[in-house]
Each structure stands twice: as C-alpha cells, then as structure tokens.
From TrEMBL:
Residue ranges annotated for the CNH domain, each copy included: 23-296
InterPro entries to which the protein is assigned, alphabetical: CNH_dom, Vam6/VPS39/TRAP1
Signal peptide: none
Keyword Lipid metabolism: no
Alphabetized UniProt keyword annotations: Cytoplasm, Protein transport, Transport
A biological process term (GO) from this entry: protein transport
Membrane as UniProt keyword: no
Subcellular localization, as worded in the UniProt entry: Cytoplasm
Natural source organism: Lophotis ruficrista
Taxonomy, superkingdom: Eukaryota
Cross-referenced Pfam families: CNH (PF00780)
Protein name: TGFA1 protein
Amino acid sequence: MSVKAFKLVSAVEREMLMGDKNYINIECIECCGKNLYIGTNDCFIYHFLLDEKTSTAGKITFTVTKQLHKYLGLKKPVSELKAASALTRLLVLCDNTITLVNMMNLEPVPTGARIKGAVTFTLNENPVSGDPFCVEVCIISVKRRTIQMFMVFEDRVQIVKEVFTPEQPCAVAVDGYYLCLALTTQYIILNYNTGVSQDLFPYCSDEKRPIVKRIGRQEFLLAGPGGLGMFATVDGISQRAPVHWSENVIGAALCFPYVVALDDEFITVHSMLDQQQKQTLPFKEGHILQDFEGKVIVATNKGVYILVPLPLEKQIQDLLASHRVEEALVLAKGARRNIPKEKFQV
C-alpha cells in the first residue's frame, strides 16, 4: 500500500535552458542553498536561483530565476559540478580536468588552479584536515587503477595521496579516511591512510551501473546484486536490512527516513525503517537523481524536477486515517528527531 511521501514539482522547464535549441542536453546538476547549477553537453554552465514558496493551503511551488550562463570554451560536455560553498567555488569537471570557478560569476580563478586527469570526482563530506578553508577532493584518475586525494583551496590545489586499487575503480564515495569503491567485479572499503582494504560483495560493473553513495557518518548505500539496495559501514558490515529495488536502478538518494531510487520508468520510495516500498511515481527518461542538503532533485535530458517531501506529521495522519496504525507508529518513532517535540507528543 502506498504512502504519499513526495510530490514531484517542476523546477527548470526546457525553454528556460535551451529555448528552441533541441540539441542541448542536461549532463549534471548541483544545488547549494538556493543556487542551482546545470552543466550541459555543449559546454555551458547555467546558474539559477531557486525560491521555494508555500501557499496558505500548504502547496509548495518553486520560482526559478536565471542568473547567468557561461561557456567553458571546449567542445566537450560538462560532466560534473560540485559546490564548495565555504570557498565560494564551483568545481567543474570537463574533458578530464577539474577547474575552479567563482560560484557567483562563474569566472575561473585567476591563478588558473586545476586538477588534470580526472575521470570522475567526489568531495569528502567528513573531512580529515580540519581546515575550514579547504575541501578534500577524491578523484578516479585517468591513470589505470589509481585514486588521488587533493586538498583544494580558494585558488590552489595540492595532491595529498595517491592510492592504487586491485582493479579499475568506476565509482567512489568518501567518508573521512575511508573510500567506498565500486571496482570492476566487486565493492570494497579502503582506508587510504593505512592502505587496509576490505571486500564487501561481488558486483559486475559491465552489466549494470554501480551506485556508491555516502548516506551518513561511516555509512554507504550501494546497488547490490539482485536489485538490492545494500547498506554498508566502513567496518564492512550492514546495520540495516536491504531495500528491494528494480534490477536497473540508475541513481539513488536519501531523504530520511526514505531511500529514493530512479530507474528507466519510475521513481520508487522505500522506508529505511521497515524496508517497505511506500510510493511509486512514473518518471520517464530520467537520468539524474541526487540529494542536496535534504533536497531531492531528478532530471531528464531536458528538464529539472524537485521531489518535495510531504510533512511527516501529514504522512502519519494519512496512515492513521487509513487504519495503518503499525506503519504510523514505525514512522513516528523512526522519524522522531525530524518532528517538532510538541507535535511528536500529540
């Protein structure tokens, strides 16, 4: 039985991005506070401001205002964007090079600092350096079976560590010193400080797209065999039961207490509290699903949408109204830290 946990709201319509230019496709997105950035296949970055409004009836809408767009000067797609708000920098991956640009005017930093030879990259959200004016970046290098760790400052970059992996890595997430890696045939946890690694479970990256996502301190979510969404800690154990996805999941996101997954035709919502599938939203041609500070965003090649969570109190009331008392109790207890105290008492 379903719960209405999320509502799908359009944020950026295709006209705002491409007008009548049909060849333009969305390659990547990044959202930081109200700033939404979109990277396209024709080497442009677009910057929008997202304003969320709630009507008196509780209906949520987004007004999106385009700030500016910038051509990066290459005939290559912008493949990844990550914001480092403490530095007011946007890290842009294009043609295997990560460039630092100003978050507001999209101009490259004057020093020309960049990281070359990156296939893909991620930021360490649980950094080890303790320097607030630096972000830690982990890249999968163009060099075979190599991961590199960098410290990125406002206008310079510095390599910290180079780690070799037993097989070619194709996806990575970082927490502190721990790397959770999808290799060619398996997932592993690797401590890049000590070099100690631990096998998690087998996985064939030739058949399916691996998913490796940090979901909290020392915990990751992975696309496992048999269409399972598996949880793993840095110790290589699972403290939660897996969720049952479809076989061809493209992306996953977390919006506590839900795990959201995207495949060719649907967005599915599973509860982390009882592993049950709670909601299915038809969504065709989606190729990006990511969460940004609790905001879940999905995109097709031509448009960007936001999955707006319904208030947990409303979800609990709806469950009670349909006599699903047990589920309502599980949700109320599990989501206690996300519900204001006086409402939880009621």
